[in-house]
Amino acid sequence: MPLETATGAVRTGLIAFAFLSYLILIGIPGRIGGPALPVLALIAALFFWLKLRRESNEPSREATGQRQDSFDDKPGWEIGPRAASKGSRLRDLLHTHSGTAPILYGLLAGLTTGLLIAIVSGIFAAAMGNGIAIQPVLDKIVPLNVAALIGVSPGQIAQSDVSFIRFIFQVLLFAGAGVLAGLTAAGGGYGLKQAAFLDRLTTHLSGATLTSAGRFAGMALPFVLLAYIAWLGLPGVTAFGTNEGTVRLLLTLIATGSGLFTLRLSRPGREQMAVAVLLGLGVFSMPFILDQFQNSVMGLVFIFVMMGLGLNIVVGYAGLLDLGYVAFFAIGAYTYAFLSAPFSSPYISGLLILLGISPESPLLGYWMALPVAMLTAAVGGILLGIPVLRLRGDYLAIVTLGFGEIIRLFMLNLGELTNGPRGILEISQPALFGHTPVDVTFGLLSSQGWIFLLALVSSALVAFVATRLNESRLGRAWFAMQEDEDVAEATGVHLVRTKLLAFAIGATFAGMAGQLYAARQINIFPENFSLFVSIDALALIIVGGIGSPAGIVLGALALKGLPEVLRGVDEYRIVTFAALLVIMMIVRPDGILPSARRRIQSPDPEEAGAAGEPELREEDPGLRENGEALAKGAGVREEDP
Amino acid sequence: MLTLESVHTYYGHIHALKGISLTVNEGEIVTLIGSNGAGKTTTLNTISGVLSARAGAIYLQEGDHSRRSPSAGGEHDLRLDRLPAHEVARLGVSQSPEGRKIFARLSVRENLAMGAFARTDRDGISGDLDRVLELFPRLQERLSQPGGTLSGGEQQMLAIGRALMSSPRILLLDEPSMGLAPILVQQIFQIIREINAQGTTILLVEQNAQAALQVANRGYVLETGNIVLSGAARDLLADPQVAEAYLGI
Fold first, then answer.
1. CB-based contact (8 Å) between A491 and chain B?
2. Smaller CB count within 10 Å for chain B: N or C?
3. With a cut of 0.90, is the ipTM above it?
4. Which residue, among A487, A623, A637, would best test binding to B if mutated, counting the most B CBs under 10 Å from its CB?
């Protein structure tokens, strides 16, 4: 292995160490408990894999640059890596990405990380064993945390009773993670990301079985996890003995997230249908399997999925930056609260008694209130939309921001109506045919599970509507408007109507989410609807990938689900959040799962043409045709005089 | 068919068009030539409704199409200058804007579909799609490709194709040859002739005065917001004043 690559590997190892150190310093190992070490190793492996994949994604640059010379000397390489025929590209692909280089790279990087972690944790352990308190300086470095990091019990740390084998094991574990990343990058994992080439690979290669085995292994992950979660739910079963609830929640989050990847990896057609049905069954059975805590987190996650999908229509499709999206969430929640909670304000109660309505019983049930809440939110959306029609970009953001705050201040100060900061209490629960399913399923479905189930169903519905809208005439008009308002108008798009529709539909979804949120919370207060709800919703669609529903689910899982897993490190949550966002913007500027349309960033034909080929390497099966056309276009362009 | 009567357009306080009057007859190619900043693009944008005229009037002869806008009134001539851009587009005035301005992230097919946004006749749309793809075979190859990945010439073809998709009665072409290689410029002008031969009236704005006057029936010469010369294209080509100022002969 050349020296340059070796230093590169060590550098990767150092970066991974720095990243893991942060996680250790904020107390993640102690939080995870027993499986902390494997989890950290997996995180490192993921990082190495991303790094390796990134480097192998730029083979053409390397190949046309420095490598070209050495290739030319050897017989059999005359075709050159840039030749247009499929065969040679395939060969190029294989030669650049297989072999031992990535594995060695991974091993070296893993060793670097492992050694450093072993040394640092050794120092911590020794210091603590000798009675030196590190906690006053680094507040999360307590025996519990360090013990989890080394994989021993806290008592052993206190007595300085950690065998040397433990540290060796740490090093080996991280080295193994590196090798795993290298293997994945060299073989199966690359095939996974290369689903577009997969058909050709399987027909052309003897090593194809490995690739498809890797693919199926990847696709099996969510199912294995779901089975494990279900098993954990059985009485008497525990996960590593500690923090069972958190571990199970984490696994649920991962299972849901990886399910989306599985869906995208599966070949379109029968396979995808089968995977979709199985995943659907798995996900919809979760409310029955999980306990109250996990269900409540997942319920919140999917309420935010609805929020994200709605905001995505405004921001992602129509390109109108709305920072006051919480307003519609609040409108939905308060509308349902008004309709379903007993009025505690004397003013309204008196009014109701005057009208002959008992103020104690809810006016409308959940389902009857749903259209009212949606409609009210939609009207709110239009009312916001009208004054901001002429605004663009930053100005729009500021005005919408103000609108969000205005609604919250209304709720806070209209004491007669909203009970002010004391909030509205005892909001009734959604029922089905007069019964709450919680009562009739013999404890199978907890109250939070019921909310989660409702959130799942509503999100699926909203996702369906959003996807259909995206493909519709209206969706095209939104995109055209986002690209260039003037040209869109000149092609016949009614700007006012199109913009207002975006605001209204987005607000409707937020209203739905708000109503469910009110039902989940039972008591709501104006503080529930602060600016941070808007920011969360916006952040999750940016992290997930603006314009892509699957990305939004991932974003919600990451931004609303993970923090619950990390409850113990609450005070570092925002910092971590910020760091995550910055890293995201560098590594994947279009989000985790960007929408197909977002992929073409540069309107400059030359640049976009040049980007066409690496773009193709990133394509997933759903976009295969698109990508092939792209590659073909780029190829044809090169032949131009 | 299209008549401008002393149209004045402003950008804030800047008086960009100082009373432009011109006529485009059915079936003609009329060209507006002039140096940078003369007001050519402003004129087109005023016609299409992207900019609004502060004074003067723009009339479009009512066609046999039944796509009449309710707010345009029942006059024989429709008054365009009071209508928003999307209504003007519905009346059959279609613009291929300066600098192409295709929708970079929409596919070529979607770009063309956006051109037909105001239409609801499915058969007519698919017929026009075939026609556009026949005119620009290159677009056929790239239908599912995002517009932003096309080369400059292809983007220009797409912009013209998109404008044609609305089945316009009058096509406003803004600098279709800008930034293109000479061989492509020839091709574009050839296509402009073809479109006109198929029965579409064209108002063409060009820097490349020579080429524009060669395809056009009539021409107007603009200078700082005023029309200084007008006449048959052949006469303008021969006019020594035009030759000196714009053709560089």
1. yes
2. C
3. no
4. A487
Task: Tally Cβ neighbours within 10 Å of residue A497.
Answer: 12
Give yes or no for B65 touching A (CB within 8 A). Answer: no
* A67: pLDDT strictly greater than 50: no
CB of A95 within 8 Å of any CB in chain B?
no
Predicted local distance difference test score (pLDDT) of residue B76: 64
Range of the domain at B5: 1-92+170-177+202-249
* CATH numeric code, A291-598: 1.10.3470
Q: Provide the pLDDT for residue A552.
A: 92
pLDDT tens digits for range A245-275: 777 888 888 888 888 888 877 777 888 888 8
List of chain A residues whose C-beta atoms are within 8 Å of the C-beta of residue B115: 491
Half-sphere exposure of B130 (CA within 13 A, CB side): 5
Residues in chain A: 641
Q: Do the domain assignments include residue B164?
A: no
User: Cα A307 to chain center, whole Å?
Assistant: 14
Contact state of B84 with A489 under an 8 Å Cβ cutoff = yes
Size of interface A-B (CB pairs under 8 A): 114
The alpha-carbon gap from B151 to the nearest alpha carbon of chain A, in Å, equals 5
A481 touches A499 (CB < 8 A): yes
CATH number at residue B35: 3.40.50.300
DSSP per-residue string spanning A292-329? HHHHHHHHHHHHHHHHHHHHHIIIIIS----S-THHHH
Domain segments of chain A as ranges: 3-186, 291-598, 600-639
Alpha carbon distance A51, B100 (integer Å): 39
DSSP state of A559: I
Would you give the distance in Å from CA A184 to the centre of its chain? 22
Is the pLDDT score of A130 beyond 90?
A: no
pLDDT 10s digits, A136-164: 888 778 888 888 888 787 777 777 777 88
Q: Which residues of A touch B145 (CB under 8 A)?
A: 626, 629-630, 633
The minimal CB distance from B103 to the residues A479, A490, A605 is found for: A479
CA A411 to chain centre: 31
Place of tokens 């140096």: B35
Contact (CB<8Å) A489/B113: no
Number of domains in chain B: 1
Task: Evaluate whether A321 touches A400 at the Cβ level (below 8 Å).
Answer: yes
Measure CB to CB from residue B113 to each of A476, A483, A640 and give the nearest one.
A476
For residue B172, the cross-strand partners are B95, B203
B198 touches chain A (CB under 8 A): no
For residue range A279-316, list pLDDT tens digits in order.
889 888 888 888 888 899 999 999 999 999 999 999 99
Whether the Cβ atoms of residue B225 and residue B17 lie closer than 8 Å to each other: yes
For residue A160, the model assigns a pLDDT of: 73
Q: Where are the alpha helices (DSSP H) in chain B?
A: 40-48, 85-90, 108-115, 122-135, 137-141, 152-164, 182-197, 209-215, 233-238, 240-242
**How far is B154 from B100, CA to CA, in rounded Å?**
10
Which two tokens mark A36?
């902390």
On whether any CB of chain A is under 8 Å from the CB of B100, the answer is no
Taking CA–CA distances from B101, the nearest residue in chain A reads A487
A626 interface with B at CB cutoff 8 Å: yes
Distances A569 to A39, A318, A513, B121 between C-alpha atoms, Å? 17, 37, 28, 60
Whole-angstrom CA distances from B231 to B24, B27, B61 are 12, 16, 22
DSSP string, A16-37: HHHHHHHHHHTTHHHHH-TTHH
> Are B146 and A608 an interchain contact pair (Cβ–Cβ within 8 Å)?
yes
Which of B48, B88, B117 faces A477 most closely, judged by CB atoms? B117
Q: Is A609 on the interface with B (CB under 8 A)?
A: yes
